[in-house]
Write a structure and sequence with these properties.
Order of helices and strands: HEEHHEHEEHEEH
Structural class: alpha+beta
Strand order of the largest sheet: 1-2-4-5-3
Number of strands: 7
Helix content: 25-40%
Strand content: 15-25%
Largest sheet: 5 strands, antiparallel
Number of helices: 6
């Protein structure tokens, strides 16, 4: 599918399109909602989980954007968004699938409204300072000084920060009968051999040892 495809005014088409684009990307979240007085307008937002961990909170830019759209009628929602009448300086109109993908991987949230043939990018702080430091045993003279942590979500975000392509897949599993340990498998679609991935997933799903 060409990423230069323009955004559809039909929200179901947009959701279907982007769920396919971000298929098997467990670090990319979709949040659906109904806005407007009486909750008559379908909307959804796409965001990178670690980079946008608290954006839907009331104090965030996205939270303020959503709260404002909850106060008006369905007809007024499109008018206010089109005219950027919500007073949100960090709201940017996007027109194509390619723009949306770039926005999500930049660490912003991208908002869709039924009947609106564009998306709205809500910029926050992008990738946060994730409290990581250079690995003591792997000093480098050039390149990143960031080392992995014990958080799988932070680690996958560190990689996503550098590989901003939906071809990098992130699959999550939970293993260990008692510990319920969350793990992630990261790979590049089209480069990783499918039979190796299938064998790895099968072996991990049979893993019962805790700790």
């Amino acid at each position: 599918m060409s990423h230069s495809i323009r955004i559809s005014p039909k929200i179901k088409e947009n959701e279907s399109c982007f769920r396919e684009v971000f298929k098997d990307c467990a670090d990319i979240l979709f949040h659906t909602m109904e806005l407007g007085r009486g909750k008559t307008v379908d909307c959804f937002v796409i965001y990178l989980e670690v980079a946008v961990s608290n954006m839907i909170l009331e104090k965030s830019v996205l939270g303020k954007f959503i709260n404002e759209l909850c106060k008006v009628s369905g007809d007024e929602i499109l008018e206010r968004v089109e005219k950027n009448a919500l007073g949100i300086s960090d709201a940017v109109q996007l027109d194509t699938v390619e723009d949306v993908v770039a926005g999500v991987f930049a660490g912003d949230a991208v908002f869709f409204i039924d009947g609106y043939a564009h998306a709205v990018k809500i910029s926050e702080k992008g990738y946060p300072s994730m409290g990581v430091s250079e690995a003591d045993r792997e000093k480098v003279l050039r390149g990143s000084k960031e080392g992995f942590t014990d958080s799988v979500k932070t680690n996958s975000a560190l990689i996503r920060k550098r590989i901003r392509n939906p071809g990098m897949k992130v699959k999550e599993q939970t293993i260990g009968r008692r510990s319920q340990t969350k793990i992630q498998i990261l790979y590049i679609e089209g480069l990783a051999r499918s039979e190796i991935l299938e064998e790895l997933e099968t072996k991990l799903s049979d893993f019962e040892i805790d700790g």
